[in-house]
Automatic annotation (TrEMBL):
<keyword id="KW-0472">Membrane</keyword>
<feature type="transmembrane region" description="Helical">
    <location>
        <begin position="308"/>
        <end position="328"/>
    </location>
</feature>
<feature type="transmembrane region" description="Helical">
    <location>
        <begin position="155"/>
        <end position="176"/>
    </location>
</feature>
<feature type="transmembrane region" description="Helical">
    <location>
        <begin position="49"/>
        <end position="72"/>
    </location>
</feature>
<keyword id="KW-1133">Transmembrane helix</keyword>
<feature type="transmembrane region" description="Helical">
    <location>
        <begin position="131"/>
        <end position="149"/>
    </location>
</feature>
<feature type="compositionally biased region" description="Low complexity">
    <location>
        <begin position="1"/>
        <end position="11"/>
    </location>
</feature>
<keyword id="KW-0812">Transmembrane</keyword>
<feature type="region of interest" description="Disordered">
    <location>
        <begin position="1"/>
        <end position="31"/>
    </location>
</feature>
<protein>
    <submittedName>
        <fullName>Uncharacterized protein</fullName>
    </submittedName>
</protein>
<feature type="transmembrane region" description="Helical">
    <location>
        <begin position="92"/>
        <end position="110"/>
    </location>
</feature>
<feature type="compositionally biased region" description="Low complexity">
    <location>
        <begin position="18"/>
        <end position="31"/>
    </location>
</feature>
Length: 331
């Protein structure tokens, strides 16, 4: 074989029924490897984090600015120079309250979009899910500033329910990301998963000069099954697997940053692209292994999440109706 030739890749038949491991890839002689199509998996994005930080910036700034008002006792607030601005019916408090209420109602469009199929023209479910999560995480801070950081009566019940929903939403988002999905947010079939994993390993082999079997062995994580684990232990195992995946990626980065087996060290864009492919391959392998357990825990999460969300919705609507009815809001 001349130096210009590279081993072609051949897909070995899948494992017996019931096995969760993806098919192995072997290098066989016979010609240059053909480039595989670009993987269609959902990639990493920091847009959601940026949107959450921006959404939290305004209530955080208002809280810092009015800290003396929010820390004052209830009687002292009435005489505070910022009372007219920061009280729930004041320009700042009311503005945040109206914005929070609109954001809260907008969040309920996501389950409506999921249930009504003909609304597909409004955008992919993945995009709706991202907006839903961002709004859910930013909403408690916005509502807290509107309420003057006081939670009495019905608004206290609504806020507590909203806060629980927000915390559970973090868990739900974590579970959601552990189900294999395409860029449009739809769950991948097992055939799609096999195809995506094959493309990832082929791309890694071309980038690193390693044979696919070595790549799979190098990126292997904890192979223990998830069968028989309760929901709490399932989530704990997921976190452990994620931590282990980050460690393997860190070791791989150090290894690829120095020359090995006649290949020059990867630097710059090559190293970033290779690590991105490796991260996706490891994540996909982990997702396939835990898929049944993740779906089960996700189902339990839905059952627990919905009552708190409905309670928060009812409490917020009643609060708004009462505030308008008694004239506590002046537009």
């Amino acid at each position: 074989m001349t130096p210009a030739q590279k081993p072609a890749l051949k897909l070995v038949p899948p494992p017996p029924a019931g096995a969760t491991a993806a098919p192995d890839l072997k290098a066989v002689p016979g010609g240059p490897a053909k480039a595989s199509p670009a993987p269609k998996l959902a990639g990493r994005s920091y847009g959601d984090l940026l949107a959450i930080l921006v959404s939290l910036a305004v209530p955080a700034a208002v809280t810092v600015w009015g800290a003396s008002y929010y820390l004052a006792p209830l009687g002292g607030r009435l005489r505070h120079p910022l009372h007219a601005l920061l009280k729930p019916a004041g320009p700042v408090g009311l503005g945040l309250g109206v914005f929070g209420f609109a954001l809260f109602l907008f969040m309920w469009l996501y389950p409506f979009r999921k249930a009504v199929k003909w609304l597909a023209w409004t955008g992919p479910l993945g995009g709706w899910m991202r907006v839903h999560v961002v709004a859910g995480l930013a909403l408690p801070a916005i509502v807290a500033v509107h309420a003057g950081w006081r939670f009495d009566g019905l608004i206290g019940l609504g806020y507590l329910s909203m806060f629980v929903v927000s915390l559970s939403g973090i868990v739900g988002r974590y579970l959601y990301t552990h189900i294999p999905r395409s860029r449009n947010g739809l769950e991948l079939s097992m055939e799609d998963v096999i195809g995506e994993r094959r493309a990832l390993i082929t791309s890694l082999a071309a980038a690193t000069g390693m044979v696919p079997a070595d790549i799979e062995r190098r990126l292997a994580v904890d192979p223990r099954p998830y069968d028989g684990l309760d929901p709490v232990r399932t989530i704990v195992r997921m976190v452990q697997d994620d931590v282990q995946r980050w460690r393997v990626l860190a070791e791989l980065k150090r290894e690829l940053s120095r020359p090995h087996a006649g290949h020059a060290a990867l630097t710059g864009t090559e190293l970033r692209d290779t690590l991105r492919l490796a991260r996706q391959e490891m994540k996909l392998t982990q997702q396939v292994r835990m898929l049944d357990a993740t779906r089960k825990v996700f189902g339990y999460w839905h059952v627990a999440h919905r009552p708190f969300a409905i309670t928060a919705l009812i409490a917020v609507i009643v609060h708004v109706v009462v505030a308008v009815w008694i004239g506590g809001i002046g537009f």
